[in-house]
Amino acid sequence: MIGNAEEVLHKYYGYETFKKHQKEVIESILSGRDTLAIMPTGGGKSICYQIPAVLFKGVTIVISPLISLMKDQVDNISELGIRASYINSSISQQEILSIFSDLRNGKVKILYVAPERLDSPEFYQLMKTIEVSQVAVDEAHCVSQWGHDFRISYTHICKFIENFSKRPVVTAFTATATEEVREDIVNQIKLKKEAVFISGFDRENLKISCLKTGNKLQYLLNYVKTNEAQSGIIYASTRKEVDNIYEKLKANDLSVTRYHAGLPDRDRKINQEDFVYDKANIIVATNAFGMGIDKSNVRYVIHYNMPGNIESYYQEIGRAGRDGESSECILMFSAQDVITQKYLIEMSIQSPERRINEYKKLQHMIDFVHYNGCLRKFILNYFGEEVNYNQCDNCSNCINSGEYVDKTLDAQKVISCVYRMKREFGVNMIVDVLRGSSQKKVLHYGFNKLSTYGIMKDYSKEALSNFINTIIAHKYITLKEGEYPTVVLNAQSIKVLKGEEKVILKESVKANKITAHNDLFEILRNLRREIALEESIPPYMVFSDATLKELSIRYPIDSNQILDISGVGDLKLKKYGERFLNIIKKYIEENKIEPNWSFKGSITSKSERKNDKPKTHHITINMLRDNMGIKEIAKKRQLTLSTILTHITKYFEEENVMDINIKFEELFTYSEEREVLKVIDKVGISKLKPIKELLPDSINYDKIRAIIVKNYILKEVVK
Ligand code: ADP
Question: Helicase ATP-binding domain location, by residue (predicted)?
């Protein structure tokens, strides 16, 4: 089965190998098991339900809340040659009837629907009359009220599934990893005997930076200008801030658009499309923007303000670099951000229980901003993932060239001040005391008489507040959560105070230009834009940045070679191959480049299937992939069964994977297999003759060989 899945991956998507966990998830779905897959944004969730959809007999229904993006998703897979449709509120009754008819006539493999559709009696009725093999719930965290995007219509999914006379495989996908949300998904959708896959949350290609710069706008402007030709998202927490930044960038002649809930629907739609279609390089937006944005070539995500929790932050930066290319994520922090986030919690959340929960999440976010260790590790640990390194070398704290500074003395001053203040206060009050403020409140408590009063005057108010927050993030002191969090001492604080533990911290960074591409990349990008315009599809649907990059480095000049490039499948070759090849050939000629081509060369690569001289055992393997039996192959290739078995063994020794379904049952019966295994138990497998001698004549050497391959060689490798 998984062999077929790989075939679909090559043929339709043009990808060489599965990404992390895709294979296991697909295997689980293909085996008919309910499956919940938790993968980070950009982890490749769609392929996990799309490939089974192609391989299953009936239709796959995908429930997705992303109405505005359904068209894109459907266009995207139709581009690859997979028959797909969608039904949501933007579709007329006439069109719906025509889709219903296509569904009845088996002309649709994948149907995307908005969850609201599950309330329609006509839709229920139709579902009873067609074969539905899979119901895939995309963005499954919307079913949970603990998630950050709860949707009431998602609670009807369970009833919808129960309506089928033959229950389809139910699959659910999300990027939200917290345990309570995960459990809620399983319970609410009523998954049965589900397999749960949690992919590593690390997105290695994302460089994560956190800045506490004084002049944010100036920094932003510099950054965006330096990376003018790249696609980027700038998030700000309020509409007003979005408008300000937008105006500023516009005034600087940058290619920019904006998105927030205050704009009319039509403008939002146009602006989003301008960004997706590369007509505007930059989009400034509130967090209303981005859910389900599939644009794969976003090279940077800047948070002009700190988001309210790590979940949202990670989801938002996840929109950068979906194509796997290096991308940059910069969070610009200022103390005002905390006040804004608290205000948003107060305004938007009624339930006291949920409010406390949100404050808790906000505190983790604040800790992150002030953390001086590896930022990636901080996030991964937050999502419950253990990492075995201390430095990722791709976050601002790890690559910061600034020196480590011994801040023990300053930390002792803070701790000692907290100790002397006796009562619990927030960070601001401590800052005031340490800086010697003569504010009423300070004098009222008599803090001006403390020995620590005014001992940190050399710090600005903001710098001192940052410093205190940093030592909180590093757990040298503790912040008690709540609307007005207060600072208290802990066991670490005492150690620092006694001089038993040192406080060593690092300073912040500047961000540079993102990786420069070569000339050919730019030329290919222009061609991509041209084709996208002609076809009215977003450029990344023609080819991703990663594909363009590979083209611009490897210089393929014929169709076999271009098929060896990741992201080029059969249909894309047919549609765009020639135009890209012509441009590459021209570039090579003009620049007198002599490409030194070599195929990536794995057996599963498309190139080898079409290449001149594949190795003999690879020919056998390809025939097995085409679902031929061992006997049939032996006959066609005029080889003995024993040779074919040797080919299989060789392949598994090379690849160390079991990805082809071999039909051994045509070679021996179950009882013969038992008999042979019993004898092997006695005499071992090192020699065939002693095995043969203990068996009846009807069990010949080929049968024994095949049983050994199945039970020992393959199992050995599969382990
Ligand atoms: P998610 O929904 O998890 O955020 P997508 O399904 O949109 O992620 O996939 C992210 C990107 O990765 C897309 O551009 C997709 O085409 C690409 N992708 C998915 N699977 C593979 C693969 N096996 N090899 C290379 N690229 C892949």
Answer: 26-195
Residues 501 and 523 in one domain: no
Question: Ligand 1 in contact with 46 (CB < 6 A)?
Answer: yes
The pLDDT mean for the chain works out to: 86
DSSP code for 332: E
Computed from CA positions of residues 482, 485, 491, 496, in that sequence, does the dihedral angle turn out positive or negative?
positive
Give CA–CA dist 286/305, Å, rounded. 10
- Dist. CA 48 → ligand 1 center (Å): 9
* 323 lies in the same domain as 383: yes
Nearest CA to ligand 1 atom 16: 44
Greater model confidence, 225 or 519 = 225
User: What pLDDT score was predicted for residue 681?
Assistant: 84
Spatial contact of 157 and 137, defined as CB atoms under 8 Å apart: yes
> What is the CATH classification number for the domain harbouring 248?
3.40.50.300
Q: Which residues contact 350 (CB under 8 A, 6 or more apart)?
A: none
Indicate whether 184 and 238 sit together in one domain: no
pLDDT band, very low/low/confident/very high, at 607 (cuts 50, 70, 90): very low
**Model confidence at 566, in pLDDT bands (50, 70, 90)?**
confident
pLDDT of 599 > 90? The answer is: no
Q: Which of 382, 464, 390 is nearest to 430 (CA)?
A: 464
CA-to-CA distance for 147 and 74, rounded, in angstroms? Answer: 26
pLDDT in tens, 162-183: 988 899 999 999 987 677 788 8
Check whether residue 576 and residue 675 sit in a common domain.
Answer: yes
For 337, the token pair is 């951000």
Output the CA 47–ligand 1 centroid distance in Å. Answer: 7
381 lies in the same domain as 424: no
pLDDT digits (tens, 9 = 90+) for 640-681: 888 898 888 887 776 666 567 788 888 998 889 999 999 988
73-77, 515-519, 566-570, 616-620, range with the lowest pLDDT? 515-519
pLDDT at 73 (0 to 100) = 84
Q: Which residue has tokens 């004084």? A: 214
SS3 of residue 716 by DSSP: helix
Tell the residue nearest (CA) to atom 26 of ligand 1.
15
Distance (Å) from CA 12 to ligand 1 centroid: 13
Domain end point (choices 480, 506, 532): 506
In this prediction the pTM is 0.60
- 595-603: long-range contacts, CB 8 A cutoff, minimum separation 24: 595/554, 595/555, 595/557, 597/554, 597/555, 597/556, 597/557, 597/561, 599/561, 599/564, 600/16, 600/564, 602/16, 602/17, 602/655, 603/651, 603/654, 603/655
512 within domain boundaries? no
* 364, 399, 434 - which closes a domain: 399
- In ligand 1, which atom is closest to the CA atom of 17? 23
pLDDT at residue 601, rounded to an integer = 43
Q: Which residue range is the domain that position 227 belongs to? A: 206-399
47 CB less than 6 Å from ligand 1?
A: yes
- Residue 370 sits in the same domain as residue 434: no
DSSP three-state, residue 293: coil
Per the structure, how many domains does the chain have?
A: 4
Instruction: Answer whether 45 contacts ligand 1 (Cβ < 6 A).
Output: yes
Looking at ligand 1, which atom is closest to the CA of residue 296?
14
Co-location of 448 and 487 in the same domain: yes
Whether 423 and 494 share a structural domain = yes
Going by pLDDT thresholds of 50, 70 and 90, the confidence category of residue 718 is very low
Task: Record the tokens describing residue 7, joined without a space.
Answer: 């075939």
- H/E element, 132: strand 132-137
